[in-house]
Amino acid sequence: MITHKKLPNGFEYIEIKNRAAEAKIALQGAHLFHYARVGEKPLLWLSEVSDFEVGKAIRGGVPLCWPWFGFNEDKSLPQHGFARLSLWEFASGDEVDDKTTTLNFKLSYDEKTLKMWHYKFLLELKIIISDKLTMELKTVNLDDKIFKISQALHTYFSVSHISDVTIKGLDKKPYLDALTWKNELQKGDVTFDQEIDRVYQKVEDEIVLKDKNREIHIKNQGSSSVVVWNPWIEKTSRMSAMRDDAYKHFVCIESANAFDDARVIKSLETHSLKACLLYTSPSPRDRTRSRMPSSA
Ligand code: TA6
Description:
By secondary structure, this protein is mainly beta. The protein is 4% helix and 42% strand. It has helices at residues 111-116, 232-238; strands at 2-6, 12-17, 21-26, 31-37, 64-65, 89-97, 100-108, 121-129, 133-141, 147-149, 151-153, 156-158, 166-168, 174-177, 182-185, 196-200, 207-210, 215-221, 225-230, 250-257, 263-265, 270-279. Strands 5, 11, 12, 14, 15, 16, 19 and 20 form an 8-stranded antiparallel beta sheet that branches. The protein has an 8-stranded antiparallel beta sheet with strand order 6-7-8-9-22-18-17-13, with no helix packed on it. A 4-stranded antiparallel beta sheet has the order 1-2-3-4, with no helix packed on it. Strand 8 and strand 9 form a beta hairpin. The radius of gyration is 18 Å and the shape is globular. Mean pLDDT is 94; it is low at 288-296. Residues 57, 70, 79-80, 154, 178, 197, 227, 229, 252, 254 line the site of 6-O-phosphono-beta-D-tagatofuranose (TA6).
C-alpha cells in the first residue's frame, strides 16, 4: 500500500507497507525516515526529538547531502547542500509485487536553487522497499556547463549500543580525519570510544556494520568514499534535535562522493550513486513490533 499523508502543520510524507517491509519518506528532502522489515526493529535511527517541520532537516533516517557535502565556503549557504531542505516531487510509486515497492522522487532547478548553486540540474531518487533497502540518487547535468558535486546518502543506522558496534571492510583504507583535517590510515576494524568523523577513500568493497543482534551489509556503486560519524558525548550536547544520550543509539555510515571522490559531470551526462542495504535476520529475542515515530 502506498499512502500520501499530511501532518496538521502541512508536512507531507509517503507511507509504504508491503508484505516484506514498511517505510516513510518525507517530500521535503525525499527523506527516508523510517524503514523496518515486517516484525523487526527499524533499520534507521530517528531522533525522538526531531522536527517534522517545513524548512528544518529531519534528524535521522537518510538525509540527502547534495550538491555539496559538509560546509560551503559561502557560510550563508546550508551545510550539506539544499536538497534535504527542498520540496521534492513524488513522481511515481509502483507495487512491483506484494513484497516490493518502488518509489521515484524528483527535484529540479528553480530560481531559488540557481541563486545558491548556479547550474541547471535534475535529481532523481529511486527507493526500493523490499526485504532489503535500495536507494539510487541520479544527478543529471541539464546545463551547458560542466559541474562538480560532492554528496552523500547520510544514513543513520540504529544500533543496540554504540559500544557494541564494529565496522568491517575499512582496514588499511586511507581516510581524512574531519576532526583534525589530517590524512590517516585505518588499522583494523572501526570501533567507537570517542567522537569519530572520517571520510574514508578508495572504498570499493562491501562494508559490514556488526551489531549485537544483526549484521548490515552496505554495497555502494558509483562511490569510493564512505563517511563514518558518531558525535559522542560533547558534540551530541551541541547538536540540534538530539537528546544527550542519542550518540549511544546510532552510527552514520554514509555512501558518498566526498572530498577526493567528488564527481565532475559534463553537460547532459548523469552520475548515479547507489546503496543497497542488506541484513541478516535478528535473533528471535530481538524481534519486536516496530515503533512508529510518534510525530508522524
Ligand atoms: O557526515 C558527518 C557530518 O558532516 C558531521 O561533521 C556532522 O556534524 C554531521 O554530518 C551532521 O550534520 P548536520 O548538518 O545534519 O547537523
